[in-house]
Amino acid sequence: MAHILQTAFLPSTSALRRTPISGSKGKSQSLQVKAKIREIFMPALSSTMTEGKIVSWMKSEGDKLSKGESVVVVESDKADMDVESFHEGFLAAIMVEEGGVAPVGSAIALLAETEDEIAEAKAKSQSSSGISSAQVVEEKPKQKEESEPAVPAVAPTVSSIKTVAVGSAVHPASEGGKRIVASPYAKKLAKELKVDLGTVVGTGPMGRIVAKDVEAAAAAGVVAAALPASPAIAAPVTSGIELGTVVPFTTMQGAVSRNMVESLSVPTFRVGYTITTNALDALYKKIKSKGVTMTALLAKATALALAQHPVVNSCCRDGNSFTYNSSINIAVAVAIDGGLITPVLQDADKVDIYTLSRKWKELVDKARAKQLQPHEYNTGTFTLSNLGMFGVDRFDAILPPGTGAIMAVGASQPAVVASKDGRIGMKNQMQVNVTADHRVIYGADLASFLQTLAKIIEDPKDLTL
């Protein structure tokens, strides 16, 4: 909640009159103080954010706000973030409803200094609804109305209760409904009220669970608990994805799309390498019980290799020069609901493997909850994309804008290998393919880097130092 709502003053016609005070010549003077109505703007939550979606309002119109209090949850191109108020006052008018999209810098609400200005602020909100500064594109994906099968009531008292259906609404961008899509505030509220989000149907945009859904589920649970038990009725199971429908990009998917198109302007090339992983596999089995992950081991090995080849950790942003990055920050691609994000392991060459593994677990949890802060996903200097966990043996990755190289890691698989003395044996090997910016990095640079990486992985004693 580090981001603060930006506000600007709007002139108010109402005035407060103070008690007359004596002037220097004994004449009575009156001091008028104009009340303040502030526009609350859509904040820029990341350097690449051009618009934001209102996930949920944590306050309602007329509610009093304190300085630093969370007001709204905004979905940026990378994460959902709680946004705080910078001023005290009253949330007078909400100009962009939940699910609405507004450009960065446009007004999304009005904040009145006193209750007396709420009515005036609402009038201003209605009069400015057609002004370009408050233009909002409301996302309303067409949904096919389906009639629900009639279910006979078990008892009259039960049928009158508003129940919460199970699994009948799923975010279309989720992986078949495997993950729960909910706003950060809804998750926090569910934890406090002890509500299982898996039993809640979201009424927010694209099926997202918002705070009012959790409150409704909690209320229904209290009433249901007071009623005598009745035979359970099996809820209809649906896939959550309606084939043949057109689904608009989420904010994150839109950002990924723009980045991928931007990457096409960079001249790239690819170099592959085969690395024997027997020693790394043995080390992983030895220290896995201490919380070490294979992702952390690969990130650490990559960072140590980059320390010896700084040009592979460099980047070109203007087409006229390149920068040797002062830190080695390994970004690792993670698939989440509605898109892809790259949490960053900062200073991976300097952090020990145990701390690195703990940090990685923390970053993944925050990424899947859409709670990463900007510095946790936009500071990478080299990117890893690992599909080996899915059994993929080799693939190419697209270079993220603003970086010099990305490495695609395949699965480690047993292979028949001939040794230098002519003997044939079995060894575990993995394929890695590096995509690099050819304006800065050349073939010899990548070849040398991959040789160093192979030596580190094949003799991984330095990974646990």
TrEMBL record:
Residues 137-147 have a biased composition (Basic and acidic residues). It comes from the Eukaryota. Residues 37-112 form the Lipoyl-binding domain. GO terms for biological process: pyruvate decarboxylation to acetyl-CoA. The keyword GTP-binding does not apply. Its EC number is 2.3.1.-. Residues 181-218 form the Peripheral subunit-binding (PSBD) domain. One of its GO terms (cellular component) is pyruvate dehydrogenase complex. It is an enzyme of class 2 (transferase). CDD domains: lipoyl_domain. Keywords: Acyltransferase, Lipoyl, Transferase, Transit peptide. Its cofactor is (R)-lipoate. Belongs to the 2-oxoacid dehydrogenase family. This is Dihydrolipoamide acetyltransferase component of pyruvate dehydrogenase complex. It comes from Hibiscus trionum (Flower of an hour).
